[in-house]
Structure formats: C-alpha cells, structure tokens
Amino acid sequence: IGWYNEVVDENFKFPYKEDTLAVIFPQHDIEAIHDFELHPSHRPKVLVQTAGHVAGAAYYYQRKDVQPDPWGEETKIFGVSVHPKFGGWFALRGVLIFKDLQCPDLPKKAPDDIVPTHELRKELLERFNFRWQDWTYRDIILVEGKYSEHQKLYFETPPKDRPQLIQKLKRELK
C-alpha cells in the first residue's frame, strides 16, 4: 500500500499502514466469491463464517458449541462469528481462491476461542438469534472498535431505502 500511496494524489490514497499487503493478480487464476452469491439451486456458493473459522480469522460459534443443548430440536439456532479484536463488529464478505496456487506446507491456525464458557456461548447465540436488532451480541467480549452511528443507521435501513440514506448522509457531512 505504501508503494501505491507514494505515487497517487491524496484523494486516491488508501487509509492503511504503508506495509499493508495488497496484490493485483494477472499471473494467477483466481475465483472471487462474495458472501451473497448463490448457486442456481439457491444454495450459498460459500459459507463465509465457516471459511473465516477454518482460516483462523474468527471463531464461528454454533449450537454444537453449547452442550448440553438448552433449546430443544424445534428451535432453530443460527451460528455467529466473533473476532478476537472486534467481537461481532465486523463482516466476512467473501473469499478469493487462488486456483493455481497450492501450499501443501501451510500450517493450519485454529481461531481464538474467546467465548470460553457454556453460559457465555449460550448468551451469545441467544442474543444473536432472538435479539440481533439490539446489537448486543456484537459486544459479547470487550472490543477495540465498533461501527459508527452512521454505519449502524445504514445497516438498520432496508436495502431499498439505502440510496436515499446515502444521499442524505452525503448532504449532512459536507
């Protein structure tokens, strides 16, 4: 990023540390899959929370992580990822698959298990599944950063109304 930022005008600079890695990919066969992409059968093309877990980025807490199961078979419980620095204040938006690059000796890193007790995991999953609108599941641990009030407003706004919100925020922030 530093190399790039050194040669572009101020309004094109990336707001990252100079030693942040960025790549362009002309020599590799890469498949980019966004979190919202579906197969024709409507099955997701990638389970990004599972991908984040196996990559060691964030722990994906699921019903199986709370034993004994306190909810019963009839209750649907969705899992949620928690990042060691940002708790639930982050998103996994997709994966890049380097189809022509193999790393047979790459060590596997387990994600940090930062919600270690049965009761806290139960609380996390209940907050996420039954009270996700109050944002509290995101603070299940102490976090280093959260979404701004503008970001929260954006995510609380139905997608069809977001273009108008963006225009309103642009006017207000000038």
From TrEMBL:
Keywords: Cytoplasm, FAD, Flavoprotein, FMN, NADP, Oxidoreductase. It comes from the Eukaryota. It is found in: Cytoplasm. Its cofactor is FMN; FAD. Belongs to the MMACHC family. PANTHER family: CYANOCOBALAMIN REDUCTASE _ ALKYLCOBALAMIN DEALKYLASE (PTHR31457:SF2), METHYLMALONIC ACIDURIA AND HOMOCYSTINURIA TYPE C PROTEIN (PTHR31457). This is Cyanocobalamin reductase (cyanide-eliminating). It comes from Mya arenaria (Soft-shell clam).
